[in-house]
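Target chain:
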Amino acid sequence: MQESTVIIVGAGPSGLAISACLTQNSISHIILEKENCCASLWRKNAYDRLNLHLASEFCSLPLMPHPPSGPTYLSKDQFLQYIDKYVEHFNIKPRYCHAVVSAEHDEVSNKWRVEAKNMREDTLEVYASNYLVIATGENSEGYIPNVPGLGTFEGEVVHSKYYKSGSKYESKNVLVVGCGNSGMEIAYDLYNWGAIPFIVIRNPFHVFTKELIRKGIQMVNYMPINVVDIVITFLAKLKYGDLSKYGIYRPKEGPLHLKNITGKSAVIDVGTIGKIKEGAIKVVPSNITKIEKKKVVFGNNMEKEFDVIVFATGYKSIANEWLKDYKYALNDKGMPKNAFPKHWKGDHGLYCAGLARRGLFGVKVDAELIAEDINQSLNLHNK
């Protein structure tokens, strides 16, 4: 059995950020990562045209801000370069190809017992630690809803996690299900590659330019959120006009307020709205009721044949599958059981990072809080 003060499960931005903070405090730790690289979601499962939607000032990890002279909005590749530099600078050495299969709290020793499969050597390794950090992220497994007849669909079905670009879909009818940032951007990408995109939009959402969102986040430092929401929503209405005639409705609550209480982000427009207005991207204002071979039937009785369905329907946490004592920090859906801002701390030395639906800025805050809490706990114990 290998012992360490802290075990971190996951080498995405959350795991790396916590590692850097623990290193600053000279706290021994091990990162277990099932993939063969760090930040695998960004490296392997992000579509080609992805750029960070928030300005770089809100997208740094602890102890290493982006230089002011750098680009305001980073591309996927620029962000990965930053991650690689971060790993090198803090000498972070995750144990790659180590898939955690179980973790449980031992009441007798008051330690966490973690079993991980070393996939390179096909062996089972056992670890023990005083503290366990869940840093596997909320985007660990793509969620596809159970649509009647989906199994009979004769075209291609892909989750947004595995979508790279629309290059192979030229002239094909493609249905995008989901109107969050991924769905809207994928619809735009499909149009640019010569596909014929349709997008299912059933729920209201806010739409902004990335500059408007940047201004909003900056303004929150100087005025109440509800005032900021009124200002930026008014500016968005001036920019986009009335979108209801295109099947897009704004929620009654303000965007930043909604983000705070639900974790749901506004849509950052990359050009999709213009194409919807032109009719180049068609909106389907109804849910799917059934699928028959290539035909998709919608709740408004519309029927159409599609070659491809892209599900941009979000992700689910799978921490509950390996974390036997998840009740100390998570609910039955694998998300924090404690409400924000206490979401990151559980009981018996169990923590969760990057599960508050607050992007990279939330990752940074979680990492700093968790490392400081562990540091204080150790100092108390040593006294």
Remarks:
- Residues 359-382 form the longest helix (24 residues).
